[in-house]
Amino acid sequence: MKKCKYCGHVLEGDTLICSNCGRRTYLKRFYRSRNDRKFLGICGGLGEYFGVDSNLIRVITALFILWSGALPGLIVYFIFGVMIPYSDE
Ligand SMILES: [Zn+2]
After folding, report:
1. Which 3 state secondary structure label does DSSP give 3?
2. Residue ranges per structural domain of the chain
3. Ligand 1 center to residue 10 CA distance, Å?
4. Is residue 29 very low, low, confident or very high in pLDDT (cuts 50, 70, 90)?
5. Alpha carbons 64 and 35: distance in angstroms, whole number
6. Ligand 1 midpoint to CA 24 (Å)
């Protein structure tokens, strides 16, 4: 059971907007960001999801890609990019 993190109202289905207080909740799954995107919007989406600076996520992602030897990390990044939908905002 999912609840609004602001008012505690029980949320129906996959809704992102609380029907009681009208505020947006982040209980739903991870989305790519349309607003905060440099490439596929994955880092911006992660930043929104975890509430941290998306530039920090970008640095970590870049380090991961370099650490993996470039290609494997890029493939993972693109798989995420294909699988994860954009947010509806
Ligand atoms: Zn609410």
Report:
1. strand
2. 1-28, 31-89
3. 8
4. low
5. 24
6. 8
In the reported structure, the alpha carbon of residue 11 is separated from the centroid of ligand 1 by a whole-number distance in angstroms of 8
Q: What angle do CA 50, 88, 54 make, to 5 degrees?
A: 30
**What sign for the dihedral angle of Cα 53, 58, 59, 61?**
positive
User: Is 90 exceeded by the pLDDT of residue 51?
Assistant: no
Say how many Å lie between the CA of residue 4 and the centre of ligand 1: 5
**48-57: average pLDDT:** 85
What span, in angstroms and rounded, lies between the C-alpha atoms of 14 and 39? Answer: 27
| pLDDT higher than threshold 80 for residue 75 | yes
Length of the chain: 89
